Sequence to fold (381 residues):
Amino acid sequence: MQYHVKLFTPGPGDVDEDVLDAMAEPVLRHYGPEWMEIYNETISLLRDIYQTQNDIYLVQGPGSALLDMAIGSLLSPGEKIIVGQNGFFGERLQIIADGYGLKTIPFTAPLGKALDTNELRKLAAQNPDARAIALVHHETGTTVMNPLQDITEIARQAGMAIIVDAVSSMGGVALPVDEWGIDICVTTPNKCLEAVPGIGIVSISPKAWEMVDAKKDNGHGWYLNLKTWREFAVGWGSWHPSPVTMPTNIVLAMRTSLRNIMHVGLEAHYAKYRYASQAIRKGLGNIGFEMFIPDAYAAPMVTGVKARPEFEVSELLKWLVAERDMAAGGGLGELSGKIFRVGHLGKASRREYLIDFLFSVEEFLRAKGLKVAEGSSLIGI
Ligand SMILES: *Cc1c(COP(=O)(O)O)cnc(C)c1O
Fold:
């Protein structure tokens, strides 16, 4: 294997060997009975994780492409959409919506705070013509969990379609798509589903399809248009479920990981992240770090940690790569230099990774001349 930096990043994460092995299988045709069996099993595993009966499509591209696809396929220029924004990825939703000429109503919260349902009630009352709301479930930019279930209740009552960026939450925390009435839910394999990047996953509710069909224009071209994917799923679905050549090895790798997750069970998979985040919060707290987000709305898959006066965040991150072959994440945008982010995805949630990380941060602090007793980070975890 080539030189490897252990990933403690907010995504992607280090994945299991059997997931990597699937990438080395011979290339398959993306059609025919052999493929249909793999494809159908993968979609069925995703339905279990999404807890939905909705259509699910696999579209090669990053998660952002599928968010772009969904917003552009449902809404027409001039229509109103409420856009949740409390960090980097919420801002991206705003940019996508602006790109389609939608009338965007910003639903904001300060960086490091969760979106506030009272604010949404106000916005919904002021904008009865809003056709949809788009928001991020786990805002990876700040490591805040937004109160998605409460938000969906308000949005549903107001008749809005609900478009969710669940790229870094699906599989990491409970997200029952049908129970919460989520119309579009986008994720990728390379965060809490613990597989490799290369495709996106989108679920589409009957209400979302109604909007697609009622849309005045055709959407936007051919590839990132939900209609194109439905045409093939319906028309050719029994043998060739997608309009283009699928990255079959990436799907095989994801199937391996999804099987593993369902084998241990969703609750155990969620519990693993809770354990890892609590260990990192406690461990870094033991050696003088402060967490960026209070426990009440901190994400269990990524932990945001505040910068300290004794050194720059960039010094710590560079030292970890150079001296210990470990990569954590910095802050994005305005938070650059103010926080760093420790991901717990894949192998990073394992005890040996956690201990390795905490020991290494201790060593960095000692290298900076701070008095930190060896092993003190591990007390109580
Ligand atoms: C990682 C991430 C994205 C970006 O995903 P891409 O696959 O790089 O487009 C979007 N939203 C959230 C919340 C993320 O964590």
About this structure: The longest helix spans residues 266-286. The chain has a mean pLDDT of 97. The longest strand covers residues 130-136. Residues 11, 62-64, 89, 136, 140, 165, 167-168, 188 surround pyridoxal-5'-phosphate (CB under 6 Å).
